[in-house]
Each structure stands twice: as structure tokens, then as C-alpha cells.
């Protein structure tokens, strides 16, 4: 297949100072939880993006000095020459495919707590460090500190050039880097030439760009990454005033502008809170004030939206982090006219969450993400089948769909049987909840692929029993029958069933998704009890509030949807609850359910609150594994396995991964006593 000429503009080379990007696809710097701790895995992951056609592939942030230590996070470091080899390996992996390797140099200033290096943090002013409540202060940099800092930045740029990189990204964004702190009136109230007027606050950023160009500009492109709006109105930088002024003042200085909004939670908004291309309204002025190439992000997955952004003069280059994680081969698929094969990011931020927990990134859509080296998984290639065996997959949720798709790709004869009248399992049900419609892409991508496979047969309205499975006579059976939310209130806070809590008095998310609603008139009170702490409690609260109920969201957590701090959504979710008029009751544990009454205990004071309301219990799930146990001991099959929520209820990302893993491992020998992936080892002899 060939590329649609409408997309030709995406494949035009573009000059970035002295270097030329082969096309308009730029994998912007993004955290990945591997970095310096899993550097081989990181290098392979970046190399895969280049293989998939991203013309520029950047590192995550790379810390320039030991006063810029953001432990416990795993980002890259280039503190001295000893850090060069693993970064050189990454640059090499990218350049092997003809792409440009970019490195983003960073000093996090007052946001670097220096927990590992034990240096005193530095910044524009004396301030407690930012981002955590760690009882440490940053000290105000004097002029000699600023000179030191500029030298560190310059020297690191030279080291990066020597490590093989083509582009330096000078980074002022996300309310988290030194030039940002100097630019911001909130963080910088100095009275010297680095404080006061915008020109003074911009001085450091200008110096960094000039000095980087001076040091390496002859051979490397110098890109600035700059947040033009902080989305906090007059309390921060706004694109319509200082954001624009700053770009105008530096307009022709960098070789390329990579512009976005701040902070990270605004830049990487989930699909629950922002649509594709949502940053355009903030950044579209930039191309009017500079002749240099301009890039932005905005979760672009549609080539039409990308071309439109270029044609309308908003950008020259399409930046992407999450779309490149969900589909490292997105550019290649556009180039080869395979648009329907694109695995579109769903905007869930599971990738960010794992990084934020200090673990290698995972992706809901792309189960191979982070496994490129560790397991040798390629996102597009998979071994052909190991035998002529047939496989029955029971259940067409994310686990079953991915197992069937990947088994089909391997060439197995697959039968996928689904009890319901729709495919997609929990993804289909959950994508109908407020704000989650993009999640249906998990189903749509897989169904689109399966429909093209003659060796995969799909049957709906086919509830499988043990007899039916035996009758069908497949060689291998994999059970992906999912899980059910439990009504008994057991979860993290309640380790025994809550008295009175059962399916007659308590509704669960499954009931709500099946269309059941609380008894009583419209407007009757409901309590959504959330001991799950992810999205489900808040989306059900939103749904019921939209249906006119008086809604209380009660949780034993410290705040609403506490875990979503990792997906960068917590504040946005809590704010939405408040805006919708939903009452929030934090630190409360469900203790008893009566006929129309609900008791909750304050987890600190142990006082009990009694309310007249219907309770929706969102606490935990139980696997639907009856069919598995009915077949597990059967000798009629070569294997009977279970995957996804039927094995261990977790996220959709887990279910997709389990389905994929099953398909990869079929007809291979898996020794449960052997670690099933490569690990990075320390070379003790080198210390
Ligand atoms: P997962 O996240 O593990 O993929 P889901 O709950 O999303 O799990 O999907 C499980 C799917 O399995 C649902 O669509 C459900 O209708 C289907 N299912 C459950 N039991 C059977 C059965 N006995 N036969 C066929 N399909 C079943
Ligand atoms: Fe997109 Fe979610 Fe994958 Fe991140 S984890 S790339 S947000 S689909």
C-alpha cells in the first residue's frame, strides 16, 4: 500500500539549524520510568520509535548536575563523562534508523530535592522545595551560582554532542525547571538583573540558549521547549501577555520552538478532560512571531488532524509523547497507507502513572511498551505459530480480544466466543460512562485487526459452558471471562464483609453499567462509596449527579480518587466533583448498610455518620473463574489457562498485557522458576 498524497506534508524534511529532520514526526521528551535505572530497556524503547518512523526521538529529561538530583525518579543524568555511554547507546539506537536523536537538558532547581546527592537545592529565591512536603529548602542563587549553573549547562551540551546527539532541547516548562522558575513572578521576586522585568526574568533562559548555540550550535540543532501558558489565569504566565512577549523577545534565537502548556497535568491531560489538539488555542500565535519551525503536542493520533494543524499554520512539526507510546509505528503506518492499523492512544495516562510510581512505563493500548528489550517484544512483529493447534478464547473483553488478535497474527486458528451481544467486555461498558468514550479504542483497534484475519472466528451471544467448550474440541482453551464488582464492601478499608451489604441493598458498578438505578424518586440521595481510589467511583458519581441524584462521594482515602494523582488527574477530578455539587466525604469507611440507611465511620475520630441513601459500593472485584475451574483438571485439552480480570482483576492495561503474553507464550516452554525477562545488572567490577 502507498501513502495517501494528502499526508505528503507530514513526510517533508525540515531543517532544524544545522541538522535536518527526515519528516514532521517528533517524539517529544517523555518520562518512562526506565531512564538511568533501566538504560538498555530505555535505549531499545527509543530505538523502536525511530524504527517506527519518528523523525526526531528525544530522551526524557536529562539532569545536568548533581545539584539537579530528582531521586527517587529514574530520569536520565549526564552529570559527568561516566554517564555518557548509556546515553550514547540510546542516540545510536535512534540514529541507526536515520532519525535525529535529541536530548533535553534539565536542572529542576527548587523542584530537585537532592535526596540522593545531599546537595543543598538551588533556585531563584529561598523557598521550601516544590512538589513534595519534604522539609528541605532551596537556597537563593547568587550571581556566582548562576555563572556556575550556566557553565554546567554548557558543559553538558558538549558532553551530549560527544555522546552522539543531534539536538539539544533547552527546557523551560512544566513549572519545574530552572529557566521557568526564573521566568515566573511566583518563583522569582529577585531585585537584581535576573528579577523584576520580563526582560530580566528571561535573561537566564536567553543566556542558556545563546551559550548552547555558541558551544554546539555549529553541529547541533538547539530547540527550546517552552510552556507559553500555565492555565492559571493571571496567577501564572498567559499566552496572551507574557507568554507571547517572551516568544517575541527570543523569536529567532532557537532553531526550533517546541511549545506547550504547563504544568505537566495540563500538558498531558487525559481524554476525560481534553480533546485531541486541545493545546492549539494556546500556542497558535507562536508561528506568527517566529520564522523558525514550531512543534506542539496535543495527543494527535489522526493524520487528518496533523495535516490540518500544519496547513492551518499552527505548527510545522507534530510532537507526540503518548501517541508514540501507544503506537511507535504511527508514522510508518501513515507512510504505508495503513491508517486503520494505527493503535490510537486512549488518553488514560497509565504510562505516566507507572513512571510516577517509579516503575517502567506501561501502556493500555501497547502491551509491548517497555518490553522491547526486557522480553524482546516488537510492537508489530510476533513469532509465527509454534504448531497447528487450535485455540478457543472465551470472553471478548480487552484480555480476550488481545489474545485473539495476537494469536491470529501468529497464524493460529482461533475461535473467540463472547456471551454478550456486544464485544469489548468492560471496555465497551466503561466507555459509555462520562468522559471515557475514547477508551473504546482498545476494542476498536483489536476488532479492526481481527476482522481482517480469516483464521479468527468471532461468535457473539455464545455463553460457553464446560460442555460446550468440550464439544467445540479446541486444543487450547483460554478463559478471559472477566470479573464482577463485589457488593459486600470488602476492599482496602474493610477486610470483612460490611454488615447488611449485599446485592439486595447495595448497587455495584456492574449494576449501574447494566442500567440499574437507585430506587426512589429522581433526586433521591445516593452515596458512592469509593475504596477503589481510581476513576470508577468518580465517574459513577458524575453519572448519577447528571441523572439528578443528590450524590455524596465517600472514601476512606484522604481525597477523592487518590490514586489518580499518578495519572495527573486527581485535582481535576476533585474539582469536577465540586463543580457538579457532589458532596465529598473523605476518611470515611462504610460500616453498615440497613434498609435505606448507610452508616459510615470517620477513620480518625471513629464517630459514625448515618445517612438515608442508596449505596453504590466501589471497592474490589472477584474473578469470574467458575468456567476455568470446571475445565482446569480436564485432560481433553493441551492446556486450559485464564487471563485478565478472570485471573487477577486490575487495570485494562493489565488485561491487554495478559492477553498478549498468553499469545506470545503459546507453544513455548515457560519455566515458572525462571525470571521471564532480562534485567539490567550492575557491573560490580567497574566500581
Ligand atoms: P477482561 O478485562 O479480563 O478482558 P472483561 O470483564 O472486560 O474482562 O471481559 C470478560 C468478557 O467475558 C465479557 O464480555 C463477558 O460477557 C464474557 N464472558 C463471561 N463469561 C463468559 C462465558 N461463559 N462465555 C463467553 N463469554 C463470557
Ligand atoms: Fe495513551 Fe494510555 Fe497508552 Fe499512555 S497508557 S500512551 S495515555 S493509551
Description:
Strand 8 and strand 9 (about 135-140) form a beta hairpin. The two termini are about 50 Å apart. It contains 22 helices and 29 strands. It has about 675 residues and is α/β, with parallel strands linked by helices. Helix content is about 30%, strand content about 20%. Iron/sulfur cluster binds next to helix 11 and helix 13.
Question: What key attributes describe this structure?
Answer:
alpha/beta; 19% strand; five-stranded parallel β-sheet; 30% helix; 29 strands; binds iron/sulfur cluster
Largest beta sheet: what is the strand line-up? 3-4-6-10-11-12-13-14
Low-confidence stretches at least 5 residues in length (pLDDT < 50)? Answer: none
| SS summary, helix count | 22
Radius of gyration: 27 Å
Would you report the number of β strands?
Answer: 29
Report the biggest beta sheet as strand number plus sense, adding barrel if it closes: 8 strands, parallel, barrel
Small molecules in complex: adenosine-5'-diphosphate, iron/sulfur cluster
Please outline the helices and strands.
Blueprint: E1 14-16, E2 19-21, E3 25-27, H1 39-51, E4 56-63, E5 76-77, H2 84-95, E6 100-106, E7 122-123, E8 127-128, E9 137-140, H3 143-162, E10 167-172, H4 178-183, H5 198-216, E11 221-229, H6 239-250, E12 256-261, H7 264-267, H8 280-283, H9 286-289, E13 294-296, H10 303-311, E14 317-320, H11 322-326, H12 330-335, H13 350-356, E15 390-394, H14 398-410, E16 413-417, H15 426-430, H16 441-451, E17 456-459, H17 466-472, E18 476-479, E19 483-485, E20 506-507, H18 509-513, E21 525-530, H19 536-546, E22 550-554, H20 570-579, E23 583-585, E24 588-593, E25 597-602, E26 608-612, E27 614-618, E28 621-623, H21 626-631, E29 639-642, H22 652-665
Parallel strand pairs: 3-4, 3-14, 4-5, 4-6, 6-10, 7-9, 10-11, 11-12, 12-13, 13-14, 15-16, 15-18, 16-17, 18-29, 20-27, 21-22, 21-27, 22-23
Antiparallel strand pairs: 1-2, 8-9, 19-28, 24-25, 25-26
Helix pairs in contact: 1-2, 3-5, 5-6, 14-16, 14-22
Amino acid at each position: 500500500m502507498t501513502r495517501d498524497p494528502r499526508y505528503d506534508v507530514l513526510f517533508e524534511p525540515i531543517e532544524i539549524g544545522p541538522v535536518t529532520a527526515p519528516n514532521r514526526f517528533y517524539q517529544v521528551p517523555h518520562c518512562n520510568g526506565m531512564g538511568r535505572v533501566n538504560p538498555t530497556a530505555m535505549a531499545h524503547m527509543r530505538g523502536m520509535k525511530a524504527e517506527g518512523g519518528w523523525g526526531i526521538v528525544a530522551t526524557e529529561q536529562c539532569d545536568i548536575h548533581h545539584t539537579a538530583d530528582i531521586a527517587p525518579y529514574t530520569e536520565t543524568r549526564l552529570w559527568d563523562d561516566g554517564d555518557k555511554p548509556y546515553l550514547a547507546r540510546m542516540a545510536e539506537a535512534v540514529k541507526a534508523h536515520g532519525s535525529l536523536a535529541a536530548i533535553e537538558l534539565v536542572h529542576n532547581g527548587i523542584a530537585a530535592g537532592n535526596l540522593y546527592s545531599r546537595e543543598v537545592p538551588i533556585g531563584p529565591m529561598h523557598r521550601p522545595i516544590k512538589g513534595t512536603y519534604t522539609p528541605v529548602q532551596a537556597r537563593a542563587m547568587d550571581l556566582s551560582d548562576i555563572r556556575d549553573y550556566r557553565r554546567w549547562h554548557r558543559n553538558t551540551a558538549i558532553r551530549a554532542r560527544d555522546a552522539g546527539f543531534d539536538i539539544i532541547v533547552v527546557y523551560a516548562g512544566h513549572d519545574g525547571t530552572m529557566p521557568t522558575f526564573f521566568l515566573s513572578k511566583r518563583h522569582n521576586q529577585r531585585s537584581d538583573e535576573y528579577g523584576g522585568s520580563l526582560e530580566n526574568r528571561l535573561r537566564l533562559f536567553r543566556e542558556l540558549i545563546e551559550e548552547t548555540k555558541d558551544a554546539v550550535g555549529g553541529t547541533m540543532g538547539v530547540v527550546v521547549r517552552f510552556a507559553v501558558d500555565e492555565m492559571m489565569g493571571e496567577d501564572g504566565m498567559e499566552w496572551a501577555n507574557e507568554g507571547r512577549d517572551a516568544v517575541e523577545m527570543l523569536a529567532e534565537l532557537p532553531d526550533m520552538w517546541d511549545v506547550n502548556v504547563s504544568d505537566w497535568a495540563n500538558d498531558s491531560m487525559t481524554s476525560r478532560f481534553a480533546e485531541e489538539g486541545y493545546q492549539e488555542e494556546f500556542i497558535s500565535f507562536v508561528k506568527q512571531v517566529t520564522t523558525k519551525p514550531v512543534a506542539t503536542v496535543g495527543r494527535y493520533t489522526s493524520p487528518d488532524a496533523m495535516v490540518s494543524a500544519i496547513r492551518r499554520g499552527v505548527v510545522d512539526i507534530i510532537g507526540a509523547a503518548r501517541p508514540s507510546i501507544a503506537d511507535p509505528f504511527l508514522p510508518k503506518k501513515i507512510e504505508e497507507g495503513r491508517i486503520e492499523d494505527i493503535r490510537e492512544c486512549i488518553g488514560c495516562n497509565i504510562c505516566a502513572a507507572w513512571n510516577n510510581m517509579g516503575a517502567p512505563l506501561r501502556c493500555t493500548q501497547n502491551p509491548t511498551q517497555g518490553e522491547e528489550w526486557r522480553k524482546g517484544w516488537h510492537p508489530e512483529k510476533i513469532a509465527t505459530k509454534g504448531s497447528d493447534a487450535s485455540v478457543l478464547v472465551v470472553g471478548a473483553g480487552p484480555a480476550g480480544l488481545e489474545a485473539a488478535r495476537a494469536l491470529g497474527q501468529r497464524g493460529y486458528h482461533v475461535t473467540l466466543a463472547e456471551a454478550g451481544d456486544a464485544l469489548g467486555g468492560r471496555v465497551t461498558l466503561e466507555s459509555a460512562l462520562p468522559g471515557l468514550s475514547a477508551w473504546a479504542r482498545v476494542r476498536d483497534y483489536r476488532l479492526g485487526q481481527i476482522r481482517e484475519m480469516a483464521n479468527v472466528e468471532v461468535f457473539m451471544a455464545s455463553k460457553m459452558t464446560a460442555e460446550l467448550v468440550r464439544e467445540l474440541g479446541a486444543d487450547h482453551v483460554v478463559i478471559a471471562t472477566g470479573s464482577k464488582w463485589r457488593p459486600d464492601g470488602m476492599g482496602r478499608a474493610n477486610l470483612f464483609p460490611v454488615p447488611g451489604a449485599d446485592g439486595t441493598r447495595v448497587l455495584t458498578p456492574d449494576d449501574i453499567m447494566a442500567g440499574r438505578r437507585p430506587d426512589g424518586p429522581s433526586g433521591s440521595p445516593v452515596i458512592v462509596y469509593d475504596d477503589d481510589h481510581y476513576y470508577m467511583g468518580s465517574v459513577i458519581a458524575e453519572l448519577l449527579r447528571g441523572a439528578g441524584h443528590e450524590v455524596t462521594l465517600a472514601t476512606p482515602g484522604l481525597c477523592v480518587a487518590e490514586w489518580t494523582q499518578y495519572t495527573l488527574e486527581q485535582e481535576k477530578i476533585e474539582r469536577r466533583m465540586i463543580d457538579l455539587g457532589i458532596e465529598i466525604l473523605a476518611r470515611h469507611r462504610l460500616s453498615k448498610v440497613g434498609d435505606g440507611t448507610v452508616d459510615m465511620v470517620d477513620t480518625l475520630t471513629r464517630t459514625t455518620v448515618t445517612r438515608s441513601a442508596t449505596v453504590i459500593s466501589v471497592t474490589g472485584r472477584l474473578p469470574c473463574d467458575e468456567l476455568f475451574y470446571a475445565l482446569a483438571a480436564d485432560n481433553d485439552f493441551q492446556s486450559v489457562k485464564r487471563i485478565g480480570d478472570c485471573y487477577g482483576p486490575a487495570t485494562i492495561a493489565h488485561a491487554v498485557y495478559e492477553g498478549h503474553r498468553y499469545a506470545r507464550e503459546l507453544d513455548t516452554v515457560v519455566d515458572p522458576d525462571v525470571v521471564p525477562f532480562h534485567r539490567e545488572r550492575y557491573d560490580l567490577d567497574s566500581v
